[in-house]
Design brief:
Strand content: under 5%
Distance between the termini: 10 Å
Number of helices: 18
Helix content: over 70%
Radius of gyration: 20 Å
CATH architecture: Up-down Bundle
Number of strands: 0
CATH class: Mainly Alpha
Structural class: mainly alpha
CATH superfamily: MFS general substrate transporter like domains
Length: 394
Amino acid sequence: MSRPLSIRLGWIAALAFASGFPFGLINEALPVYLRTQGAGLVDIGRLAAITAPWSLKFLWAPLVDRLGTRRQWIAGCLAILAVVTLVLAHSDPARLGPAFWLLAIAIVTLSATQDIAIDAYTIEITSTQELGVANSVRIAAYRVAMFTAGGLLIWLAGRADWSVSFTAGTTVLALLTVAALLMPAPEGTGDRPHALWEPLRALGVRPGIWAVVTFALLFKLDIAALEPMTRPFWVDRGFSLTEIGAVLTTGRIIATLAGAALGGVLTSWWGIFRGLWILGLVQAFSSLGYWAAATAVPSKSLILSAALFENFAAGMGTAAYLAFLMSICEKRYAATQFALLSALLAITRAVAGEFSGGLAERMGYGSYFLLTFALAFPAYALLPAIKRAVLEKA
């Protein structure tokens, strides 16, 4: 760790932005895009089906550990992402046919692959004691990127059209490619694993790993079920594209920055375990904000307040969650082990998203948001069991 922490945090922030931008394109911009094109809630909920590569990235993570450098993987994926997004920009937005979905799947696959290298790079240049601060920076930059993709691009679509919007996204990805080519190599990370199964075997024999896996699946189940329906909820409650892109996005960026910063500091101060249960509880109340907005007299101010609190609380909870997952990983196996652990959250998002649209249509927004609040608490039963699994890293 010979480089100053400020320099390492700068690269963590830049790479987190590169990771968050395509995620925001798929999860922030496309739900609004589809709703404005007349797609139903069930179809929007099924966007989760194309996110499978984020769940399955651990399958090819060992190749990223063994072949090439972190820089090569990250820059290569970003360059191809720019090309794919440019093709999307010049596709006919009135047709949501197979070609559109293939482009979306390509974006997810490339995003998942670069995430493997980005996550490993972050673990390799960060000590356990720095994880709280590092993850506050990481979450803030990731969320800013998400909202750039889901805010600025939506705002541009409202002022011009979706072709201009996606072309702007291509420009951002091209600039990120150039930045990735300049990133320094990590120092002192040791030899790469010699067998594909070594990282998985090392993780599998960890005490309490069954609790880690189950906890990783459940800790953000409430948020995974809530988020897919918030975007159509905004549209159905009368928010315009420019309001979503400017007002909601600006406020959510500020809320996320505040939540991530506070969550990182508190996690470093309290420790990972205490941070998980306290900040996870704060995270759970996001659903109640949306429940209140859905059941009260229609009010854009109330919806904006719910959205701001959701992002503030999510930033806090994610800081503790990522610090926990990273503390489990060994540096020499960082790409594969973190890819596997973080894929569990992607599985949760995919499964919850698949059912979200149908449940929201049958139950109505208010009852559905209340249900998501209840989904926050099964993970708490596992907290005593995961204490043994945290690996203290130098």
